[in-house]
Amino acid sequence: MYDPASALLGKAAVFETMAENPAVVALAELATDAKFDRNELTITVARENIVAACEAVKAAGYNFFEDVTAVDWFPQEPRFQLSYHIVSHGLKERVRLRVLLDSRDASVPSITSAWPSANFYEREVFDLFGIDFPGHPRLTRIMMPENWQGHPLRKDYPVEGYR
Amino acid sequence: MAPLAAPDRITPGVEDVIEDAKRHGNAGTGEHSMVLNMGPQHPSTHGVLRVVLELDGEIVIALAPDIGYLHTGIEKTCEAKFYQQVVPLTDRIDYLSPMTNNLAYCLAVEKLLGLEIPERAQLLRVLLNEITRIQSHLVWLGTHAMDIGALTMFLYCWREREAILRIFEAVSGQRMMTSYFRIGGLALEPPMGFFETVQEFLDAMPAHIDEYEGLLTGNPIWMGRLKGVGYLSAADAIALGVTGPPLRASGVDWDLRRDMPYSGYEKFKFDVPVSTGGDVWARYEVRMLEMRESVKICKQAMAMLVGKTGPIVADAPKIVLPNREQMKTQMEALIHHFKIVTEGFAVPAGEVYQAVESPRGEMGYYVVSDGTAKPYRVHMRNPSFATLQALETMCKGRLLADVVAVIGSIDIVLGEIDR
Questions:
Q1: Which fold has domain B74-418?
Q2: pTM of the predicted structure, to 2 decimals
Q3: Residues B248 and B273: beta-carbon distance below 8 Å
Q4: CB-based contact B240 A116, cutoff 8 Å
């Protein structure tokens, strides 16, 4: 069974134990928090640094962008967590970049300049969570009809019944 | 219900369709070009994909896929279910590879729980996953060939697919929406005669693949429609998030089964077919070889499974439902059964991303737990969704008729795109 004590929490603990990890080396400057839990490395960066962080891990060999999605921690603040999953074909390792966003200003720079494949994923997050991605080439709804109101994956949007 | 903005007109006329198509197109409509709306009810789009094309004569200038017609909010629904109740939802995402979806989700939750799965269950999971891959590739081959005009292939492929669906029915009671994997193992022991049926199928399959290749590989029409069509370079494939057979057909040697093994794939010996062609033909070659490799993996799994005994579920009475025998004779088992069914089971807080190699590419499940019995967030990273982004690159500057061949070659399933 999972043992919570096995997780490495905090930037200091992770960066000390995994000092050789290429993602850790690449993000030594930009990381604000980190954890290594269940064999998965998560590095938190500030939202204005996300494009720089993507470029840094890309230069470190993490060449393939897999996924970006959001988690809504309503009513906590910061409310939104964005999780970027990036894998390296050469190192056969994955890193998760995490950005935390306040509900008052839910926007994060688009990373389509680093990986064009983020295009549809960012549109999906925009559509279902209402998070803005400045710099995206064409940020429109992708799943819901264009005239839909509201963002269904937010926690204050009910699963069924009236809104 | 929430107020929707009132549509301007109730029944759209031709002008509205053109207007809408232009808004979906990527480029402004030039003087000599026309906008063509394809789908969402077009038979060659394999579901409800709408593609808006801008054409100059028969040449595609710009293309934009419009999706969302099948969006049913599965991710939202998951948040309202117990962990074990999500398994049947996962079948409905990629309905051509139900077992792969079950596996990806179960592995993700098992990773959250830190659960060890018995070897026999792992082998059965691998066996069924590879059979699923063959099944999915058969559907792809049949429909792809039908799009191109080779109608006979469909019937041949459906003949073998029927044998596979019978295997699925034997283990799970369902032909398509199997929901056979459970968090912690499998739902049921395979029935009597199961291994004999599978062995029979595996023995016959290589000859059937020869048969398909005999019909298609040397066929001049087939070659003419596939070779040099829908080219995608390795750099573009990586930049646009393409995974699975289309990625390998562009020359990138990457397969999660071999490179980031899960569920005991490291015990199997198999080749990963790679082609450098990058066109529709290369994708055809790669998938045909993959079917042969899947048969090889299945045979290895069978060799390891026959005569092997052992449990098919993990030793975790608070997570795995007890069998009927235990439930009717043991007080403890009855209590556990009652608690799992009515309250679910708590999963330690955390987040995991588990990716598996589905027949279409990388299928990833991102599951976030807040420590309760219901997942806080489930997100699926689906291969077709990302691969669809590469459609424009593959079709630009080519003939309109090639769009159909390219859509067939990326083997999209709209259920997993729209979720």
A1: Cytochrome-c3 Hydrogenase; chain B (1.10.645)
A2: 0.89
A3: yes
A4: yes
